[in-house]
Design brief:
This protein is mainly α. Among the domains are: about 90 residues, no CATH class; about 100 residues, no CATH class. It has 29 helices and four strands. A four-stranded antiparallel sheet has the order 1-2-3-4, covered by helices on one side. Helix 6 packs antiparallel against helix 8, helix 27 packs antiparallel against helix 28 and helix 27 packs parallel to helix 29.
């Protein structure tokens, strides 16, 4: 939304109530805490905290309110705030510029002692402000504890009856976003350990928040991903200047954090922490600590559950990355081959054999993969596609024809032009008949089958398809109108009447009228007028439908 016309995106009732709140001066304490980021208190049945973010063009990027309203995307308090921001020059003025000075201007004019007094007094009444000040300007120990408290206080503000709904999720992560900014400072100041500690605080609080938060908007997940990215950056930069002892401390710290129960329930993020340790594993102690941890987790994941299988795959992936970075090619390749049952590792071995032009070995690996993974159709098709590439490299046309046909009939269109190139002009019509007859029965008639019929100009079969599926006529008529104009007209009429019969609201009526417009384009004004007249006579008791038909 844009600040100039936000009313167009909000229900009229909410706009009316929000405007009343604004005009009754219920929007108080508007504060631009950073460029484009505004907060305010809106008085209702109680005081509600509203936040709005604007870009330089005054597009509304984000808004939130901690009121319990949950019937639509935008509440009256947020709407009142939009009005207030749009009318920052008071609408009650006599035309003079009454724009208030910014907070920065006001504070800049205060003497130092007065400014300190104001800060202490306001921080005493506003715990979040105190935590932000301690986070940014206090000693490290205070910074960690202040970070935890700051994140928790914003979460508590966003809670309603012990739960954070999706509309308040952005407010709930505000404290974490402030700590992320502090992480950036620590990274720039080469304080790697502190940056990692702050990241671990954010991860812990956000993962706990997920237990009682509707994160359908992705706010919490996004903060977690940002935090992981920043930890990665901190460690990458730390490789250059950290001592061996400091690296060892960070590896130990990451591993201890990954052992927390909260991370065991979120394996993806648990293994992300362990993977960060690889950067420091040029130090033998660090590698030993990490490898021992991986072996411990592997021993614990001895069940056949999906989570245990995922854990084992992640462990193998980290072990392979360790070998690739710090061991010989022979050692990590032997590790790949010894774990060939892993589809990911099998793919790596296949690709390596392609690079070495060992096509017969590729075919052998693919056949073995198809046999082992027969319960996973997607993997089987993947191995077959690799096998087809090997046949291409070997110029084995017989196997290309056989396997290409199998893949095409599974729904892989890319093999249609490949097959067409493999057959002569005399052979192709019979092969094409076989393909279309089989595709028609395999469930792909809605996409690949139709595409082939259009490309090959098989209008008789395409007409039969449309007769059985009238809803496709508005897309397929250009391919039929020249040879089958009468049939096209009748199919359109059947489709339009079927739609009209099922329609019961204005949106559905408009959809019918859109098809009538396409029908008019395809078959002419006279035919369209006849259909409209018939519908008007049949549905004369539906004024909304008659209104939409009149627009056509």
């Amino acid at each position: 939304m844009h600040l100039n016309n936000f009313e167009e995106s909000i229900h009229d009732t909410i706009v009316s109530r929000g405007k009343e709140y604004y005009e009754w001066q219920h929007v108080n304490n508007i504060n631009e805490i950073r460029p484009g980021h505004f907060t305010a208190i809106v008085r209702g049945s109680e005081d509600y905290h509203v936040e709005v973010k604007l870009d330089e063009e005054e597009n509304i990027l984000h808004f939130s309110c901690n009121c319990p309203y949950d019937f639509s995307d935008i509440c009256k308090h947020e709407t009142a705030m939009f009005f207030a921001l749009r009318n920052r020059q008071s609408p009650f003025s006599s035309g003079k510029d009454t724009k208030e000075p910014t907070l920065h201007d006001i504070l800049q004019d205060l003497p130092k002692q007065k400014l300190m007094q104001v800060l202490v007094e306001y921080a005493g009444r506003n715990p979040e402000m105190e935590k932000e000040l301690r986070l940014n300007y206090g000693p490290e120990k205070s910074g960690i504890s202040a970070s935890e408290e700051l994140i928790q206080q914003y979460i508590q503000r966003a809670e309603v009856d012990g739960f954070v709904n999706w509309r308040n999720a952005h407010l709930a992560v505000t404290g974490a976003e402030l700590v992320l900014e502090k992480m950036d400072e620590k990274i720039d100041d080469e304080e790697t350990k502190m940056a990692v500690l702050l990241g671990e605080v954010i991860l812990a609080e956000m993962i706990d928040l997920l237990q009682y938060c509707d994160d359908s908007g992705g706010d919490v997940g996004m903060v977690i991903e940002k935090t992981l990215d920043k930890i990665d950056i901190a460690i990458f930069r730390g490789e250059e200047f950290l001592s061996d002892l400091e690296k060892r401390e960070i590896v130990q710290q990451l591993i201890e954090t990954s052992r927390q129960n909260r991370f065991k329930e979120w394996s993806e993020w648990r293994f992300a922490l362990l993977q960060f340790c690889i950067s420091f594993c040029d130090i033998s102690d660090c590698r030993k600590i990490l490898e021992e941890e991986l072996e411990t987790i592997f021993a614990e994941s001895n069940s056949d559950s999906r989570s245990a299988s995922y854990d084992r795959k992640q462990i193998k992936r980290i072990q392979l990355e360790l070998m690739e970075q710090f061991d010989t090619v022979e050692k990590w390749y032997a590790f790949l081959e010894s774990n060939i049952d892993s589809p990911e590792f099998r793919k790596r071995v296949i690709q390596d054999n392609f690079e070495q032009a060992n096509y017969e070995k590729v075919i052998e690996l693919c056949f073995d993969g198809e046999k082992r993974d027969k319960q996973y159709p997607g993997l089987v098709s993947q191995w077959q596609e690799y096998r087809y590439q090997a046949y291409e490299a070997l110029h084995d046309e017989t196997n290309q024809k056989s396997l290409g046909m199998s893949l095409l009939l599974k729904g892989y269109y890319d093999y249609f032009p490949k097959l067409k190139q493999l057959y002569s002009e005399d052979e192709w019509p019979q092969v094409l008949e076989y393909i279309t007859d089989n595709l028609k029965q395999t469930g792909f008639s809605g996409n690949i089958y139709v595409r082939i019929l259009k490309e090959e100009g098989l209008t008789d079969k395409l007409l039969t398809y449309c007769l059985n599926n009238p809803e496709t006529i508005d897309l397929l008529y250009p391919h039929l109108i020249e040879k089958h104009s009468e049939h096209v007209t009748e199919i359109f009429k059947v489709y339009i009447n079927s739609m009209a019969k099922r329609s019961s609201n204005r949106k559905a009526y408009r959809n019918v009228c859109m098809v009538i417009k396409t029908f008019r384009k395809a078959c002419g004004q006279e035919q369209a007028s006849t259909v409209i007249k018939d519908l008007e006579n049949k549905y004369y008791r539906r004024p909304a439908f008659l209104d939409e038909l009149a627009k056509v």
